[in-house]
Amino acid sequence: MLAERTYGKAETYLNEKRFFDAIEQYNKAMKLQQEAEVETPGYKYMVRGYCYHQIKAFESAVEDYKRALQKDPNLKDKIEKNINSAEKKKPPKKP
C-alpha cells in the first residue's frame, strides 16, 4: 500500500531528525489513508505530534497528541508528559 511506503519514508526522516520532512510524509500518508477510507491509527498521530513538538509547533503537537488519545486511549502513558510539556510551551491566547 502506498500509504505504508509513505509512512516508511516519514519514519526514516524521523530517525534522521528531519522533522519537517517527516511531517510532510506523515501528512501525505494520512491523506492517502483518508482517501482510501482507512482509519489512521492513533500511534501515527502521536509520532507526528512528536515531530511538531520538536520543531516547536506546540499547538499542532497538542492537537495530534489529543487526537492520538481519542483514537487509542492505551497511549495515555506515552503521551501525557508530551501534552503537558507542549501545553506549557504554547504561546498564551490573545484576549
Write the layout of secondary structure elements.
Elements: H1 2-15, H2 19-35, H3 42-54, H4 58-71, H5 76-89
Helix pairs in contact: 1-2, 2-3, 3-4, 4-5
Can you give a write-up of this model?
- This protein has a single domain (2-89), classed as Serine Threonine Protein Phosphatase 5, Tetratricopeptide repeat, CATH 1.25.40.10.
- The protein is mainly alpha-helical and 95 residues long.
- The chain is 76% helix and 0% strand.
- The mean pLDDT is 92.
- The chain has helices at residues 2-15, 19-35, 42-54, 58-71, 76-89.
- It starts with a helix and ends in a 6-residue tail after the last helix.
List keywords for this structure.
globular, 76% helix, Serine Threonine Protein Phosphatase 5, Tetratricopeptide repeat, 95 residues, single chain, 0% strand, mainly alpha
